[in-house]
Each structure stands twice: as C-alpha cells, then as structure tokens.
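Please decode residue identities from the backbone states below.
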C-alpha cells in the first residue's frame, strides 16, 4: 500500500507502541548513537564549545580526544554515495550527546530549542524514531530489547500509528496521515 508515494510497511499498521517512558528506559534508543551526515557534522563541529557545558563530562573528554563521530563511513543502498555518513560516538553505553535529564535529554535538541536554531542539529533518524524511511518504504525499527518496541510488553498499548502521530505527519503529511488512520481503522474491523 502507498500513501503520497510512500510504501507503508506492515509494522506501521500492526505494531503496538507505548508512549515513551524515558525515565524507565534511560533513553535506551540512544544506546548506539545515530547516523549523521556532512551538513550536520559541519554545524555541530562549529558549535562544540557551546555544547560542551550541556554534555556529560565523560562525553566531553571523549569528544575532545576523538571527535563526536566514528571515522568509519556508514553506507546504505538508499543513501547518497557522494556524501559521507558516520555513526555518532558513544560513551558509557549512550550517544555522546545524551544527557540524562528528561527535559530533552538530547543536547542537540535542547541547544537548538533554547537558541531558536531552525536547522535541526539532531539527526533525522532520531527525530523519526521508531520509524525509518528506507528508500521510499516506511518501516518500524525492530529492536526487541527496547521496552517500547517489545511486543510482549505492549499487548495493551495503542497502535503505533496513533502513538506516533507527529512523526507520521512529518513523513506523510496531514492528508496522508488521515488516510493511514482510515486504513488502520478498517484493518482493525476485519
Ligand atoms: S543525537 Fe540525540 S537523540 Fe540522537 S542518539 Fe544522540 S542523544 Fe539520542
């Protein structure tokens, strides 16, 4: 099925998803960092001195020594091969840009909000989580070790297309989202 040119993966209609409880999982989705491209890398590198005071001390030490992303280039068939993408570095099992307050634990998000920066420093994959657009196919991540994506814990949770309305509107537009809701309601009735 396609909505506004995007193929809707099965999980988008079928997965159940409980709203985030970041205090309980301690931002488990930030465990591996995220993939980041050249435009954001350039901007973040310039802003690092201003980001350091918001970061965990151990993350600042690591970033000062090694930089905030890995040297290895991350590739995926749907990504522009002319742009280098990398994984963020992690320290003590979490992305270097994660701080553990619940008031926007991501330092990149917090800094952008406080300073009214329109360009989103936070990587696209983090904004879109738990969805990923692979080519033009919209899918749900399959990380069973995250409580919010663990089916056995989410039997009574609402469908993900209701929990993550804003993320889906970003991908499909409001009209596309309304279409998805109608399809979802029909699937439920069958
Ligand atoms: S950039 Fe922010 S949201 Fe993304 S993994 Fe790092 S701390 Fe988490």
């Amino acid at each position: 099925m396609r909505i506004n040119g995007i193929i809707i993966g099965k999980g988008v209609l079928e997965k159940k998803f409980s709203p985030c409880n970041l205090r309980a999982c301690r931002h488990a989705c930030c465990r591996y960092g995220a993939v980041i491209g050249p435009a954001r890398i350039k901007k973040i590198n310039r802003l690092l001195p201003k980001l350091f005071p918001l970061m965990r001390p151990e993350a600042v030490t690591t970033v000062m020594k090694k930089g905030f992303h890995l040297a290895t280039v991350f590739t995926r068939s749907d990504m522009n091969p002319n742009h280098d993408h990398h994984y963020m570095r992690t320290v003590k099992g979490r992305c270097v840009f994660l701080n553990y307050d619940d008031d926007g634990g991501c330092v990149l998000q917090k800094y952008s909000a406080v300073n009214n920066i329109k360009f989103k420093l936070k990587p696209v994959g983090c904004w879109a989580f738990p969805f990923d657009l692979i080519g033009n196919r919209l899918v749900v991540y399959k990380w069973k070790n995250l409580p919010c994506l663990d089916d056995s814990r989410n039997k009574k949770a609402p469908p993900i297309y209701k929990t993550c309305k804003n993320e889906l509107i970003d991908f499909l537009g409001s009209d596309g989202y309304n279409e998805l809701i109608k399809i979802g309601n029909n699937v439920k009735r069958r």
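Observation: The first helix runs from residue 10 to 14.
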